[in-house]
Amino acid sequence: MREYKPKTKNVIATTVIKTPLGNMLAASTKKGICLLSFYSEEEKQLQKDLDKLKKFFDAEIIPAHNKYFECLQKELDEYFDKKRKEFTIPLQLVGTPFQQSVWKILQKIPYGETISYKEEAQLLKNPKATRAVANANGKNPIAIIIPCHRVIASGKKLGGYSSGVDKKVTLLKLEDSYRFDIKE
To answer: Which member of 17, 148, 151, 171 is catalytic?
Structure first.
């Protein structure tokens, strides 16, 4: 069997990660996970995200084994079994400096807690950026691990979730942060 020779020097490996909420596509560079997304076969946004990674890293995207995938599957299994509250898997974030700063705030929201988009903007020291923060949350490329599901709208309303509000509700219930006062 011939060895695979990439056309470019960089490769982004992909695999399917199985979760109780459905399959997720994971992508990783040599430095860490750069994408973790729920998907369906006809989803156009996922292809846009992959194209963005391909261009950013000047890389080919191929289904392949990567040293991070086994750890990712293990940590997600532990999370869904309520045995893990924090992730240790290395990440390689791809986004604007503003988006990356928003995603770093998201990673500081403790398991089992929620904050509003307004509170997130205040934590970013930019209280007028509520809409921009919400938009950056929607572009989060690494679901669950960067927990944008922990951000709710003002007035205790759920707000949106790019993977579907049903998944957001399930994740919040899993973390015991879905309270009777959160309105759908």
So the answer is: 148
